[in-house]
Design a protein that fits this description.
alpha+beta; eight-stranded antiparallel β-sheet; five-stranded mixed β-sheet; globular
Length: 547
């Protein structure tokens, strides 16, 4: 859930708020795993078999164990299920496999499968499995070497499938580094940890992943390492050819032993995209009961305003001064009708022909006692929502932090961290921005990217072009009022709501020039939470500072 880089950042910078959020997320994960184990233990044999047949490797060990304990015996279908789970590097299945394939005088006795099962367990730092293989290596060196190569190949294939399908990367950097005592690896003095990371076309480096633990078996360490590196180089070359990687390097203890493809400057460090807190930021957030927010209304005469905020009646331009005060407006009293989107009571408008849900922001047409036209929560009169009745202001501590390798300082929640690659691939499956920051629960996000050339004088035209492109891509989205900010520098700001997997997403995008490059940024949160975050996002954009 949280990678080594995130954890190191929390420890190094003593980010207690982030640590609390991480701990809460890990507690939830532990609770989910415990509930899953309880489910497997109480599931019937038939249910477990159905789960296994549908690819649930975690259910396999429970299924096999239940077959054995109920004296039903194992058939070859069961063995096929077990083989599949072991080949997928499932630890609990491998424990059972080591036992079943190692039984003397058993019809399932298979030395190669037995060693493979132990080799999988060894990857989970199982000391008993390591001792068993080390002892067996004296008489079975060739077979165990073959098994080690097979496990390594599976590790690399699984990594390639998860990392290289969809997103475009340019090169890889692979390293074998000696294990140390703190790694909790059995026989750590003979172990090398294989790590690999990727460089994206936009220059961002992925999180370094530990894929495999190599144990030096036998007496000739140099020969073993050379054979191991030759095998890895061959596998990585095939992966690179299949996935379009242009270059790559393989290191052992910091020394380059293999290069693939085009020349590339390798940075063995990581991108400096960490959140570096500069100072506290006290946001003045208050709650008002003045009623619903309105847009496109002149604050001087009440007339309608155009795209640029100029009144069509009095011709005066609207002035929006960000003084650091954020006003959240309360929703209206509710009527008896219920929102078909979220189930909350809705507000009947004065003309009794429309109704508004202050909980999720959907505006409905009222037909007698029925609500219509509230399609997927996107039929909003105004995408800036009111504070739902009964809701309270969230307890969020804000800071001003330096991000994007020091290019920008911006106001953000104190518990913001760099988004892990695992979550990046879920939330941004293609064309992921270079810099992505998020809360530990990943519900509030900020991202930046720097692309082609853009002069500051052309920011507004560029923003209008991007808005047109966004509307052509998100055809069902509801867009708010685009704003042309000019202090401290020109920024084009627009917010909109899109339909997510299970609920709507509120987005606030902004476009700017950074040292002659196109700057593209975006805040987003769950649609139901935008009543609080929308004004915070805009304030954060208005108060950005550029290096």
């Amino acid at each position: 859930m949280f990678n080594k880089k995130q954890i190191d950042d929390v420890i190094k910078n003593e980010r207690e708020d982030v640590a609390v959020g991480m701990f809460e997320q890990m507690e939830k994960l532990a609770d989910e795993q415990e509930r899953q184990e309880e489910f497997y233990e109480s599931a019937s044999l038939e249910m477990l078999r159905n789960l296994v047949e549908n690819g649930d490797d975690d259910a396999c060990s429970y299924y096999i164990n239940k077959r054995i304990t109920e004296d039903q015996g194992l058939d070859w279908d069961d063995i096929n299920y077990l083989d599949t789970a072991i080949k997928n590097l499932n630890y609990s299945a491998s424990l059972i496999g080591a036992y079943i394939y190692g039984l003397k005088n058993s019809r399932f006795k298979d030395v190669e499968k037995e060693f493979f099962s132990y080799a999988v367990c060894e990857q989970y730092t199982d000391s008993d499995a390591h001792k068993y293989l080390d002892k067996a290596y004296k008489k079975n060196a060739s077979l165990i070497d073959e098994v080690d190569r097979a496990v390594l190949s599976v590790c690399l294939d699984r990594w390639a499938t998860s990392m290289l399908m969809g997103e475009k990367y340019f090169s890889f950097t692979a390293q074998f580094n000696r294990a140390d005592k703190s790694s909790e690896i059995p026989d750590w003095k003979s172990a090398y940890i294989f790590e690999i990371n990727l460089t994206h076309e936009n220059g961002r480096e992925s999180d370094s992943e530990e894929l495999y633990i190599a144990y030096i078996r036998g007496k000739d360490k140099d020969d073993y390492l050379n054979a191991l590196c030759s095998n890895v180089a061959e596998i990585l070359s095939v992966i690179a050819q299949k996935t379009g990687l242009s270059a790559g390097d393989l290191y052992v203890d910091g020394k380059k032993l293999f290069h693939y493809g085009a020349s590339v400057t390798v940075n063995n460090g990581s991108t400096d995209d960490a959140v570096k807190i500069v100072s506290d930021a006290n946001l003045n957030v208050s709650v008002s009961d003045e009623g619903r927010l309105k847009s496109y209304i002149c604050s001087y005469c009440g007339g309608a305003t155009d795209f640029g905020g100029v009144c069509s009646v009095c011709s005066r331009k609207q002035v929006n001064v960000d003084d650091g005060n954020i006003v959240i407006r309360k929703g209206k009293n509710t009527e008896a009708l219920r929102c078909t989107q979220c189930g909350a009571p809705v507000n009947l408008e004065n003309d009794c022909k429309t109704a508004y849900c202050s909980a999720c922001g959907t505006t409905f047409a009222v037909n007698g006692s029925a609500l219509t036209d509230g399609v997927f929560g996107l039929n909003y009169e105004n995408i800036r929502a009111d504070m739902p009745e009964g809701a309270q202001l969230p307890k969020v501590e804000f800071v001003r932090a330096s991000i994007a390798e020091g290019a920008i300082t911006a106001i953000m929640p104190r518990n913001f961290i760099v988004m892990s690659d695992e979550i990046r691939k879920i939330k941004y499956p293609t064309n992921a921005p270079k810099y992505i920051y998020t809360t530990p629960d990943t519900t509030v996000n900020l991202n930046f990217n720097f692309k082609g050339a853009l002069d500051e004088k052309d920011v507004f035209d560029f923003g209008r072009q991007m808005l047109t492109a966004l509307k052509s891509v998100y055809t069902t989205a509801k867009f708010g009022e685009a704003k042309l900010l000019d202090k401290p520098q020109k920024v084009f700001f627009v917010d909109f709501i899109t339909a997510g997997m299970d609920q709507s997403i509120y987005n606030a995008m902004f476009f700017f020039s950074y040292h002659g490059k196109q700057g593209v940024g975006s805040w987003n949160c769950l649609g139901k939470d935008r009543w609080f975050w929308a004004p915070v996002f805009e304030h954060a954009v208005r108060t950005m500072e550029f290096k």
